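#struct-pred
JK: can someone run the complex with adenosine-5'-triphosphate? inputs below
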Amino acid sequence: MSAQAKHAERGAAILSARDVRKHYGGVKALKGVDFDIYPGTVTTLFGENGAGKSTLMKILSGVEQPTEGQIVLDGEPVRFASTVDARERGISIIHQELSLAPNLSVRDNIFMGRELVRNGSVDYAEEARQAAALMAELEEDIDPLTPVGELRVGQQQIVEIARSLSVNSRILIMDEPTSALSATEVEVLFKVIRDLTSRSVALVYISHHLEEALEITDYAVVLRDGSMTAKAERSEIDLPWIVRKMVGENFDLGTPPTGYEFGDVALSIESVSVADVSVAGRSAVDKLSLDVQAGEIVCIYGLMGAGRTELLEAVAGGSPLSGGRVLLNGRNISGLSIAQRIEAGLCLVPEDRQRDGLVQTMTVGRNLSLASIGSFVRGMLLSRRAENDLVNDAIRDVTVKTDGPHAMIGSLSGGNQQKVVIGKMLTTQPKVILLDEPSRGIDIGAKAEVFRLLAERAKQGTAVVYSTSEVNECLSIAHRIVVMGRGRIVAEFGPDVPKEQIMAASGESAAA
Ligand SMILES: Nc1ncnc2c1ncn2[C@@H]1O[C@H](COP(=O)(O)OP(=O)(O)OP(=O)(O)O)[C@@H](O)[C@H]1O
Ligand SMILES: [Mg+2]
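RT: done, structure tokens with the ligand placed:
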């Protein structure tokens, strides 16, 4: 079929960007992009971190104004003054960075700014009913009155999705909607997306889970360095095509590092229990034991809610143990604070970068050096030279795309912020490094780079514990794969296990 015939088949675009440019000071985030959104179709936007994907979506949803170029809605040029303006014309967006108010309930977050009013007052009961119906549609068992701050990141992401579904948009933009979801939850979301497209809703989808995105997409568009470099129908492309168009070459994530021997046990988790904050009397982690040797990379695989985050947070000192103890090189560190544990050589790359990983009001440089600030104190003075060297090394090592150490952290693309979180922890020269879903939002090139850095650290004797819900990541980096379910270890595998077996052990359908 000719390109033109395909076009005719898809019908007219509802919303288009025409030669859109966006400049932030000297940074050219978009350099003249044409982009079309069609009814009843999922269009996926692929591209490396900092390619301009979120910027383009922000412009199409009224968050940002283009520096130059036009937005066309139903054939007419438009200008969205705000997100409210765009929403009133049927366009809504799920942001990459969650935008929920943590101390408000699920219900109040969903209806924030557009409360259901009846007889002059807010109809809270009706709001709660609709919120519960949305959560049921997303197959998530969450009470609408729960404060969002008490939910796990993945659950918060589902609330964010529910909020956008509640608007009944013609165009729904999803910027990394699944970065914290388990495979089962992604399946539910995809069912919802298919239902929306069957009702002629137009979807734009952005994700660094490339395989997953390919599963749902009808039409793929690739951005590179602010320009569109490729577009194609789903039937014309495959995974290598996307990687090639994104990064200009073909590669995979590699295999676990070999050719050296592990050292002594560096981290010993002894019968550790952690109370579940949301259910009194229940344990999020239940008498779990795990030893990790120096130089060893252990992946903890599991669904959301398996207890991985609770385990890692407790080991890092962020929450109390309700039983058991944690040893670092044989020394009991259970009573130490987070800072003391970092000092002792144990650190965590947290799951929620917004809350725990970064200080949004600081520069890239300060965020990077924050965790290891103690090592720059010479007498009473901070050694600027040492700090600068370290920051510049970290920016280079984790390939952060930024104007430099003085840029504010908020000006970085989502994936580049995540790289700063990882870089920050690596600067502390840890003996044990814990990472909780660290590849969230980073592109395949950066992921390979992070794996290379972790492998290098492991070879130098660092013990690595890497929590993930992506089987392919386990197989690319782990010497040992530990499957967690309901707060316990339910299975353990070597590096050559078939991936179906890992998924089956966690209770997932292997078809996912
Ligand atoms: N408010 C801002 N101020 C300065 N620069 C910005 C701002 N917002 C974005 N940029 C820059 O624009 C470029 C594109 O960023 P954008 O967030 O669109 O990338 P992205 O493709 O969404 O990446 P990711 O996959 O990491 O989310 C980046 O270089 C980023 O640093
Ligand atoms: Mg982005």
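RT: quick notes.
The two ends are 31 Å apart (CA to CA).
Residues 183-198 form the longest helix (16 residues).
JK: thanks, will look after standup
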